[in-house]
Amino acid sequence: MSEATKSANQPEGGSKVAALVRRELGRLTAVASLVVIFTFFTIMRPVFASWQNVSGGILMSTTVIGLLAIGSTFVIITGGIDLSVGTSMALVAIITGKTVMALDLNVWSGILFGMVVGGLLGAVNGLLITLLKLPPFIATLATMKGAQGLALIVSDLKPILFTTDVKGWDSIAQGNIIPNFPNGVLILLVAAIVGSIILNKTVLGRYTFAIGSNTEATKLSGVKVNHWLVAIYALCGVYVGLAAVVMTSRLGSAQPDLGLGYELEAIAAVIIGGTSLLGGKGTISGTIIGALIMSVLINGLRILELQQEWQYVVVGAVILLAVYGDNVRRRRAGESVN
Asked: pLDDT at position 6, please?
């Protein structure tokens, strides 16, 4: 990698140490927030801390949000956004269900197929952004609505049942390779480790940070930014496809109208975890912590039997606080905030 790209990605000297300290402090703050929220709900409703609720409720709901958030982390680090992850997940679920049943595919083939379809949808987002020069917000807003409509069309407005028609599909997320530990959570952990390795140890990861830090400098250093952006959005799509597989395994079906709203929870998890909306900074571990915070919050509000409309208000407030916190971190780092 050229020096220009390296300088865009890695601060030097004291600034590098300061950036590392800020990142770790942000992660510790997120962990502390998770502990405080968990403790609060446990005091209010002791059943909240039961292993049955933690494993079957909190951790299982974290799997889908977490997988979507991991993919979104790569995109947001580049300074982009993907609003289509939720409805794309629903579309992938429908297409996967139809194909698995039509071709009588086994579970492993079905999982691979879902990830491939998700990757293709993600690549479409990348091509719209790079070839048509559309802002990521507009491009993914369009694909969000398009995927929502296509899911309804392809499914004929009917859910696709996996539990009764695909042998072993329910064990993808709900089985227990490790006793008392759902497979869905294991999938999330493996996916997070793979995502962390890609982000921190590969060329794709280095260019992800470089593009988010300074796109023009990265272009001037000879990097084919457009090619890498398509690859990054495609990688996000792969995680969307995996989330679709896990979701259908949990529910036993693919619901064509399910998915809208998940994009906000995923983006909130990414920002809470310390990734900057302006790009250039982020970690997978922070994103997982953010996903856990979102799951704990949503599960706790349901345990308290708070009305659905007020749950939306609370989640919206959390998103606002997360973005405000990102702006505060930027100001303290001496960076400009839009």
From this structure: 46
Q: Taken in order 141, 143, 146, 150, is the CA torsion positive or negative? A: negative
CA nearest neighbour of 294 among 276, 327, 317, 324 = 317
Q: What is the CA radius of gyration of the chain?
A: 20
Residues 6+ apart with CB under 8 A from 201: none
191 vs 200: CA distance, rounded Å:
14
C-alpha 102, offset from chain centre: 30
* pLDDT at res. 18: 60
Smallest Cα–Cα separation from 226: which of 123, 131, 125? 131
Q: Is 166 strand, coil or helix?
A: coil
Q: What is the number of alpha carbons within 13 Å of residue 50 lying toward its C-beta?
A: 9
Q: Facing residues of 253 across strands?
A: 161
Mean pLDDT, rounded, of the chain? 88
- 52 or 163, which is more confident: 52
- The encoded tokens of residue 247 equal 């979701």
- The candidate with the shortest Cα–Cα distance to 327, out of 335, 318, 315, is 335
3-class SS of residue 305:
coil
60-326: which CATH architecture? Answer: Orthogonal Bundle (1.10)
Say how far apart CA 310 and CA 305 lie, in whole Å. 10
Residues sharing a CB contact under 8 Å with residue 262, sequence separation 6 or more, in sequence order: 64, 65, 68, 85, 86, 89
Classify residue 267 by burial, with Cβ atoms within 10 Å: 0-12, 13-18, 19+: buried
Report yes or no: 5 and 221 within 8 Å, Cβ to Cβ: yes
Calpha distance 171→194 (Å, rounded): 22
The residue whose two tokens read 């303290």 is 332
Question: What's the rounded Cα separation, in Å, for the pair 191 and 199?
Answer: 12
Q: How open is the CA angle 134-220-135, to the nearest 5 degrees? A: 10
- Quick one: DSSP state of residue 185? H
Q: What pLDDT does residue 318 have?
A: 81
